[in-house]
Amino acid sequence: MGKLNNTGRQLRIAVDAMGGDYAPSEIVRGAVQAAKDLEVEIILVGPKAEVESELNRTDVTNLPVRLVEASEVIKDGEDPIMAALRKTNSSVAVATRLVKEGEADAVVSAGATGATAVCAMRYLGTIPGIERPMAGGAFLRLAPDTVVLDLGANVGCQPNHLVSFAAAGSIYAKIFHGIDNPTVGLLNVGAEKGKGNEVVKEAYSMLKNSGLNFIGNEGRIQA
């Protein structure tokens, strides 16, 4: 049995077929492989002719892979944020709206971070108390259960933003890694309490009183 969503139905993932290097060929190949390996339904989103051309080169027999057309593409060289706001029928925008409309359970894009973040905020919003979108990931080989964020979605942050990143990371670790009470650490220039600039020092104080399982400027953590 494949991956199921919270209703017991096969997990449906909308994939921006035009986002990332060597799209759509490599994106389609990877998405089809995910349908095989993870047993999830894949919804490829992009210009019909281009995506179908790639699908015709790939064996999708008996695989839950389908295409939803998007008439626009955010291209290299465009300002990703402005393009995402202007091109409401871009592949990443249409893929994100599939989640909003309940047609998909998740959206994946390897395209520009700014465009993906704009579409996520515009069509999906954030968890209450989380002001900004963020990029996160795990140290897959070194520490696969450790969630690191933000990884580039934000340039300048205030202490409250760092606290919200910690809260989001803690929630992610609970849901996706099955950790009941994830430890939370603050990435800093040293382990001592007084290290860092004023933003980091204030974030330390706020995290200590946040109710999260905060253990200070520490690397051995889950979020």
Automatic annotation (TrEMBL):
Sample GO molecular function, one term: phosphate:acyl-[acyl carrier protein] acyltransferase activity
Catalytic activity: a fatty acyl-[ACP] + phosphate = an acyl phosphate + holo-[ACP]
Keyword Manganese among UniProt keywords: no
Keyword terms: Cytoplasm, Lipid biosynthesis, Lipid metabolism, Phospholipid biosynthesis, Phospholipid metabolism, Transferase
Quaternary assembly: Homodimer. Probably interacts with PlsY.
EC number: 2.3.1.274
Ligase as UniProt keyword: no
Pfam families hit by this protein: FA_synthesis (PF02504)
Compartments (UniProt record): Cytoplasm
UniProt-recorded name of the protein: phosphate acyltransferase
EC class: transferase
Any Gene Ontology CC annotation: cytoplasm
PANTHER family in alphabetical order: FATTY ACID/PHOSPHOLIPID SYNTHESIS PROTEIN PLSX (PTHR30100), PHOSPHATE ACYLTRANSFERASE (PTHR30100:SF1)
Transmembrane segments: none
One GO-annotated biological process of the protein: phospholipid biosynthetic process
